[in-house]
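User: Hey, my collaborator sent me this sequence without any context and asked if I could get a structure. I don't really work with proteins. Can you help?
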Amino acid sequence: MNSVRRGYAYWAQLALTLAVCAFMTVPVALSVLAGLTNNIFVGLESGLTTRWVQEVWGLYRNTIFLSLGIALACLACTLVLGVPAAYYMALRRSRVTRLIEELLMLPVAIPGLATALGLILLYGGLPWLRTSWVFILIGHALFTLPFMVRSVLAIMSAIDIRTLEDAAASLGATRMQRFFTVVLPNCRQGILAGALMVVTLSVGEFNLTWMLHTPTTQTLPVGLADSYASMRLEIGSAYTIVFFLMIIPLLVVMQMVSAMGARAQRHPEQDTPVPFAGTVTTSLNPPVGLDSAPQSQPQPQTEAPRHA
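Assistant: No problem. I've predicted the 3D structure and written it out in structure-token form, which is a compact way to encode the shape of the chain:
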């Protein structure tokens, strides 16, 4: 009876999983199929074609390269700002750092249009910035920075970074040496997870970008909305295909890098050389940051002969 009940539970969970997957993937599949048909209203009977994809590439390829450039620049900004910020908050947990952590989440909590309006009121008077892609980069960095900070801070809290800091400091490592040789290697999983979220959010961000862009700084989501609003539905659907062809390989590569880092962290002994069997090797390395001088070994003392 227990096996029958487990069987029913298994099939129920499988059916629920398949239903959720279908709910999420069927609209995307239909959009992709519409971008490959000659006429969306006739359907597959009109035939398949890549003409709409070619038109999208000819009209909107600049938005694709601009979105990739902004996403990579946003990733660099969040790494430079977010990782040190998480490092500081992990070492000094207090009411002030918790308040800073909550304030960092404000750009996520409030609508993107409100954030964009605030940026326009603050920096809109600078013409060189208002018409540049850097203005969009500022908004994306402001929106994605909390995700990087939270991901890295969660890893640092889990591995007890303070204990690792004290151990490295006791061996003579400076603050910069501790950060680059101890903290970063132990937090690479959090950094990779944060990088994955930053890149995907930056590429797909629309609300904030729609308010900050100009006709010369259209990104991929803004171009996608423009194609759906002003052109045939087939072109808008073909734009979705181009979006998938751009973002899916990037996500796959980042997932592979994250998996490789996880395997290396689970099996660190595979990365260290194994000494040859039958030999005994000793290594007395000095602490990091301390000058070591060669030490002379004491000579054995011989007892003077006694005279009767």
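In plain terms: The chain has a mean pLDDT of 79. You can pass these tokens on to your collaborator as they are.
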